[in-house]
Amino acid sequence: MEILLIRHGDRHRTSPDEQASLSDAGRKQATELATSLKKLEFNCNVFLTSKYVHAAETASILAAANPVARIHEMSALTPHSTKETLDDITSEAKEKGLVLPELGSVVVTGHEPRLGQLFTRLTSTRTRPLENCEAICVSGTWKELFRGRGTVVFRTPVDSHDSESLAEKIHRKMEVSVFLAALTIPALIEIIKGETSTMLLSRGISAFFLTLSLSLYVAAVYIYDELSMPEGFWLASRSRRAPLPRRGRFATNYLRFGPMYQKAAQELIERQVRTHRFSRVLFVKLGGSSVAAKCSHLQPMV
In 10 A of CB 147, how many CB atoms? Predict the structure, then answer.
């Protein structure tokens, strides 16, 4: 089975957004995408789309070349709907007389970040947000797709989004932040320790402003990165969906016990992160191996 995820084309900026139709540029994008799909020999008779006008128009343009194609508007693909999971999509499609596991291919036209979340659900991997009229095809048996083991067949149009240079830029900023933190922490220790009877107020003020300056710098670094990234680059990272189950034992137990197992696992992970974050990040990454060796006798907090 192949599932083709497509983001709607460019739309007119009108209010309300659900009534906004495709702009001329959006119609051109949809037409070009239809041509690309034809060259890739991708054929489909079932189109699932959001109820928003510009998404439905995108699906109509893509389905125009196929006289037997049918377009179905789905609440589970519409923004602000409480239905958004793969199970919701499958159930709603069944109500419309469609049995998704029995279909050879299906086109899903919708919006970000919901398409990115659906891609993650199908493949257990993440991807940058889709551009307008960008398509990504995921293939696998229904069992593989449902378990998050789908594979990417193609993506069109191909656009690297300059991800490598963006990642390199973030990495450089992180190195500078870590370096400054490594210098600041020993300075704070030297300021705080010593005889408490002398210059206590001065040491406190110095420690406060040194910590404040470091915090402001790190905040400025992240704000600069967010402002300088392409529009929508951070969108996928802001998803409020619960983390998907990993493969292996976690996936098996999740399927057996459901959300209760996921909640228990999340609580365990959060407790482990709180316990080990200080020693792992501070002593290993900032202080180096020599500091970590000196602190090796410390026990994790319970």
Answer: 17
